[in-house]
């Protein structure tokens, strides 16, 4: 496993694990980031990621993206 920040732009990956406190995991789940969900990296700007998850695009900073393992 590796953090989501290691995925290349244009790559579609599957979430394997989400780390962090319960409140962080709950927040990510509310945004659509759940285990076994496919996520596409749209772009990366200064460490922050633009992600396509389900039918939405979401921006995450590197700190949150590092908690999502693929």
CATH architecture term? Roll
The best one-word shape is globular
Highest CATH level, the class: Mainly Beta
Label the structural class: alpha+beta
Strand order of the largest sheet: 1-3-4-5
Report the strand count.
6
- Round the mean pLDDT to the nearest integer and report it: 94
Instruction: Please give the alpha-carbon distance between the first and last residues.
Output: 5 Å
Give the ordered list of helices and strands: EEHEEEHE
Helical segment count: 2
- Tell me about the largest β-sheet: 4 strands, antiparallel
Domain tally: 1
Question: How would you describe this protein?
Answer:
The chain has 70 residues and is α+β, with helices and mostly antiparallel strands. The chain has one domain (4-69): SH3 type barrels, CATH 2.30.30.90. It contains two helices and six strands, in the order ββαβββαβ. The strands form two sheets. A four-stranded antiparallel beta sheet has the order 1-3-4-5. Strands 2-6 form a two-stranded antiparallel ribbon. A hairpin with a 2-residue loop joins β4 (48-53) and β5. The radius of gyration is 11 Å and the shape is globular. 19% of the residues are buried. The mean pLDDT is 94.
